[in-house]
Every structure is written in structure tokens, then in C-alpha cells.
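Hi, here's the filled form for the chain we discussed.

Project: internal
Contact: R.S.
Residues: 210
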Amino acid sequence: MATLDVYNTSGDVTGSVDIDTDQLAPKINKQLLHDVVLMYQANDRQGSAATKSRAEVAGSRRKMYRQKGTGNARAGHRTSGVRRGGGHIFAKKQRNFYYRLPAKAVRSATRMAIASKIQDGEILILDGLAMDEPKTRTMAELLGKLDLSGKSALITTKEHDANVYKSARNISRVDVSSFSDLNAFSVLKVDKLVLTTGAVEELNASISAS
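And the returned structure, exactly as it came back:
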């Protein structure tokens, strides 16, 4: 069981909250985390790199000059891969890097990632984050009060909040996500995971349901 301080929007501690880390992730499997992160990175690859082979380059296929008697090295046609302007020897082709690991493994990795943030002290609980309108300056001031200026952070709310998202989208290295959209990669790649108390309630509910 982990007891974490709860901060308000002024950066002051207002209480605490408990998270059952033994139920959340009894052990942290680094190999599983590695495999899941690689999956997300592979799925983000565009896969559009392409070059032309010698068969695809425009140019004459006629032998440039006769094989013997010229004093020059023997040569084939102009689209040969060894000549300037020719095709690539091993041409790259567009490909799809997408693949999926079992859903149960992906869910377990997300829970392990959150547990690792708790163990490393890289999690912060925020007592509510209600914004009447999108305001980047307000969000930047809040991050400063929480000592998160210049750090990468993932702000996690109970549900999608358009005002919070729009307030943070122009701040470098700060992302916003609803609890249901969390994944191992998004959690592990940031310096600090920020959870609202509503997101913690969702987390504890998911722990109890498992």
C-alpha cells in the first residue's frame, strides 16, 4: 500500500490518498514493459520511406560501351546501382510496422508502468483541475507551482477535459490524457505522472475490479 500526498492548484499539500500497489502490480516485469514500449514505437512509425531500384529508375537499358577494347572498366547500363543517378542496390519499400501484443499483456504493462512511477516517486496527485476556459498561462503557472516547469509531464484526468487539453497543448513536453487512454509508453516516457483525484478513483476502482 502506498500513501501519496494530494496537492491543490497552489502547490500545497491538502491531504493524502492510498493506492494498493500490491494489487496494482505484484511485480514489475521489465521485459514486458520493454516489449510493449517497442510495440507502441513500432506502431507510430510512418513506414513511407521508399527508394527506386535499378528497374524503376528512368534511363536507357543499353550497355554503355562494348565490353572490351576501350581501356575503360567494363560497364552495364546507366541505371546500375554503382553509377550516379542509378537505382539503389537494396531499395527501400513502403511497409507497415503495425502489430499488437495480447490485450491482457498490454493492460498489465500499463499497471506496471504506473506502479513503477509510484515506486520511483515520479507521481503527483492533484486535487481537482477544473478550468472554466482554455488558458495556457494558467496551466503554465500551475505547473510552476507544482515544480514541473521544464519537465516532461503527463496530466491525467478522470475523463476527457477539453479545457485542460487546450490549455496544455502548447506547452512543451506536457501531454494530457484521460485515465482510460493511459498506456505504458505514455506513462514511462515522462518525468512526472500527474493524476487528478478523479483519475485516482478510477485507478482504485480498476484495482478492485481485477
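Let me know if anything looks off before we file it.
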